[in-house]
Task: inverse folding
């Protein structure tokens, strides 16, 4: 029934070719208009589900205390320290320039020259004096020396706004949330910050810019660079097709089809109003390769049918009908498998799955309309071209030998496959989950080098926020609670990789010193609740001076730790350590939650990838098995379809473990890709094998014919996808290179398994769903070339 409907449809397309082509091109033009609205954004926190507990807590901390888009600018003179008048003048000017940038609150731009930054000093008896650090830039050597001694004595600032020994100083900005305004996205803010500091960079003064907006802007730049490689992928895939068919028509028609599919998918994607990022930017490459690969299957069959029928339109109809049902089945299975990625609770992977699936569906629509319409209007190939394609040199010779080996020793490929699986299981156990984006950057990246410089000078730019909540207002006057917070800070600072930690406790201790005439022996938490309350009452500065550390009711406070790395193992250690300390040392009535800042986001991404990866792979495998079983009307058939993809996925996992490649957002998608797209090869092989077996009635002869027809097309398709993926190898980001390499490997393994493992299992077990049926007259062909 479906075959008759499909044949009627294809005949209608070939009779109305010009109208079909016009409709496809018009649809493409309409969808292309929305592509201009695409924008790039690599916000890590935006990847996570809004209802995740850590995300919710992070939002709560940011609403209370800010600090969500922490940015640090380091200023280091080539000679001397930062207390030189010209350096101090530049720090002041940079502070003012950054504060004037739209989207940045000038009251939250801190430096040793900022009015907001004050010293807490001893005054008259029982008095605390609060004053600005620098009222006037010193002009004489004596004034410079006095200021140097004064500032180096400000313990609250050392390691924060002043590097040890005064080697450098920092300007710290807490950037307001943009609220979705495109003019205030991180890439824009980062560019404005770089523009603000650029005039002050010279051979005398080194300036380093780091923090979340700068990092996101860097990733945005690499994403744009990746998209610029798309024309190279088009060229590479075109050359693969030319090698396969040796005609310009056969090279350009699949490419045009693939480019139309990419345009459709990108147009639909842009209608969602969501950003392109470093992961879903890979989807156009995938769509291009897969769509071109499906077109190859049709063209390969077209040459066969033209050779048999000698009529262009008849060959178009016959090839599209023969391959169409298989292509629709394979494409829908692949699209369904990729759509399951939308269940993954990370936005990038969701969008990657949607964009890739919509591209494959678009490709199916275009290939079942545009290709037969174009092929009908194009001149028929010369017979010498057709015969040259049939007897295709090295590949056909290799496939012939491979088919004879499989027919003679089917157990051999199964033994090799079993050995490979055994080896990969052992290697896969060594895989580590890791999503450190900074370590994905190239070593010569300017942002990475500046980030490392800031880490060296100031002890870390990656934040961990810990929320401390008492039950009643003024809970933070309790010395026991303050000492617990002090102990947690010290415990965190003892961890290698944590440069410093701060909280309101640091200011309470400084006020205690000032209250006691500057005696450093009193740099400790006061003994009584009343004295703590008195200090805050005596504090003569702006009440908002502490707004980034404690709320107005003194019930909630934040402890901020600053780290130099964001590796998964390190994040887990910090979290466990902080939670353990909170459980053992804080008063019972105090609630301590550890889950905010950049380290928290890194940990959450790692946890989600680890938790969801296995489940997602199982869902995809189940869907492919069930759909294939339904189409083939056999559970054995479903298992045959799935086997090559599973083998390729296991090989990739084994290679990841063997090479030390991390399981991250990029590599987490590889298994889904492998199982979804790799299933195409076994589907094409099984359908063609069943057709040939029912035609010739001999399982071994059918193996050889299938290998030289569908098997040849499978290798062309796999080569095109692998070549398109390998273009990613020139990306400067390591996870792009990893993804390209593993996709290429999976295509090679799954295609090889489809033409070795699948026929070997068929020959050994002779499944009933492939048994010979009554043949129709149009299926009878010359079979004299096959032996038994």
Result:
């Amino acid at each position: 029934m479906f075959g008759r409907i499909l044949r009627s449809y294809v005949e209608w397309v070939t009779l109305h070719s010009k109208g079909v082509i016009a409709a496809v091109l018009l649809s493409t033009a309409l969808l292309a208009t929305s592509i201009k609205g695409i924008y790039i954004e690599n916000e890590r926190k935006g990847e996570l589900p809004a209802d995740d507990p850590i995300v919710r807590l992070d939002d709560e901390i940011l609403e209370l205390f800010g600090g969500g888009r922490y940015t640090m600018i380091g200023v280091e003179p080539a000679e001397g320290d930062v207390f030189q008048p010209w350096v101090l003048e530049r720090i002041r000017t940079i502070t003012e320039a950054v504060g004037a940038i739209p989207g940045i609150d000038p009251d939250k731009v801190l430096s040793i020259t900022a009015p907001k930054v004050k010293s807490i000093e001893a005054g008259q008896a029982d008095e605390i004096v609060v004053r600005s650090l620098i009222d006037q830039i010193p002009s004489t050597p004596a004034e410079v020396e006095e200021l140097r001694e004064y500032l180096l004595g400000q313990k609250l600032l050392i390691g924060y706004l002043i590097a040890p020994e005064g080697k450098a100083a920092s300007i710290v900005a807490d950037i307001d949330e943009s609220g979705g305004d495109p003019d205030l996205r991180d890439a824009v803010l980062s560019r404005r910050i770089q523009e603000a500091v650029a005039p002050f960079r010279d051979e005398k003064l080194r300036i380093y810019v780091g923090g979340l907006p700068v990092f996101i802007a860097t990733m945005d730049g690499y994403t744009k660079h990746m998209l610029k490689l798309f024309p190279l992928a088009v060229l590479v895939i075109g050359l693969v097709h030319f090698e396969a068919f040796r005609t310009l028509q056969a090279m350009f028609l699949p490419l045009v089809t693939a480019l139309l599919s990419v345009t459709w998918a990108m147009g639909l994607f842009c209608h969602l109003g969501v950003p392109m990022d470093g992961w879903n930017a890979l989807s156009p490459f995938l769509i291009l390769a897969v769509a071109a690969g499906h077109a190859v299957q049709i063209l390969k069959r077209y040459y066969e049918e033209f050779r048999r029928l000698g009529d262009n339109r008849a060959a178009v109809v016959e090839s599209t009908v023969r391959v169409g049902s298989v292509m629709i089945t394979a494409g829908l299975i692949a699209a369904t498998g990729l759509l399951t990625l939308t269940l993954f609770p990370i936005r990038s992977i969701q969008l990657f799955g949607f964009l890739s699936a919509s591209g494959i569906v678009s490709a199916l629509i275009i290939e079942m309309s545009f290709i037969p319409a174009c092929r009908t209007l194009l001149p028929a190939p010369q017979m010498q071209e057709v015969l040259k394609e049939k007897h295709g040199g090295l590949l056909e010779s290799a496939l012939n030998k491979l088919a004879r080996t499989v027919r003679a020793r089917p157990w051999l490929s199964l033994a090799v496959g079993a050995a490979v699986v055994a080896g990969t299981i052992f290697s896969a156990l060594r895989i580590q989950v890791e999503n450190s984006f900074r370590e994905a950057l190239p070593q010569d990246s300017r942002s990475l080098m500046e980030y490392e410089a800031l880490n060296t000078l100031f002890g870390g730019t990656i934040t961990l926020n810990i929320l401390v909540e008492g039950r009643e207002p003024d809970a933070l006057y309790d010395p026991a609670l303050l000492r617990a917070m002090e102990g947690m800070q010290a415990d965190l600072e003892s961890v290698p990789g944590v440069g410093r930690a701060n909280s309101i406790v640091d200011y309470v201790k400084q006020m205690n010193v000032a209250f006691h005439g500057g005696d450093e022996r009193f740099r400790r938490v006061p003994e009584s609740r009343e004295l703590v309350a008195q200090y805050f009452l005596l504090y003569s500065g702006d009440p908002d001076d502490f707004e980034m550390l404690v709320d107005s009711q003194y019930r909630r406070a934040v402890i901020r730790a600053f780290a130099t790395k964001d590796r998964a193992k390190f994040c887990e250690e910090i979290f466990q350590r902080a939670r353990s300390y909170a459980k053992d040392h804080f008063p019972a009535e105090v609630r301590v939650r550890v889950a905010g800042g950049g380290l928290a986001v890194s940990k959450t991404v790692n946890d989600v990838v680890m938790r969801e990866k296995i489940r997602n792979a199982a869902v995809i495998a189940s869907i492919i098995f069930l759909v294939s079983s339904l189409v083939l009307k056999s559970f054995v058939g479903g298992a045959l379809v799935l086997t090559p993809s599973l083998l390729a996925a296991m090989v990739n996992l084994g290679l990841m473990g063997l090479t030390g490649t991390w399981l991250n957002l990029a590599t987490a998608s590889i298994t889904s890709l492998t199982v979804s797209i790799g299933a195409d090869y076994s589907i094409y092989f099984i359908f063609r094998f069943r057709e040939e077996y029912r035609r010739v009635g001999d399982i071994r002869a059918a193996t050889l014919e299938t290998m030289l027809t569908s098997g040849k097309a499978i290798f062309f398709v796999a080569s095109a996808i692998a070549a398109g993926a390998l273009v990613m190898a020139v990306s400067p980001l390591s996870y792009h290179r990893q993804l390209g390499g593993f996709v290429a490997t999976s295509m090679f393994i799954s295609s090889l398994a489809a033409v070795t493992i699948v026929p070997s299992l068929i020959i050994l077990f002779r499944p009933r769903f492939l048994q010979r049926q009554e043949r129709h007259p149009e299926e009878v062909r010359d079979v004299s070339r096959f032996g038994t």
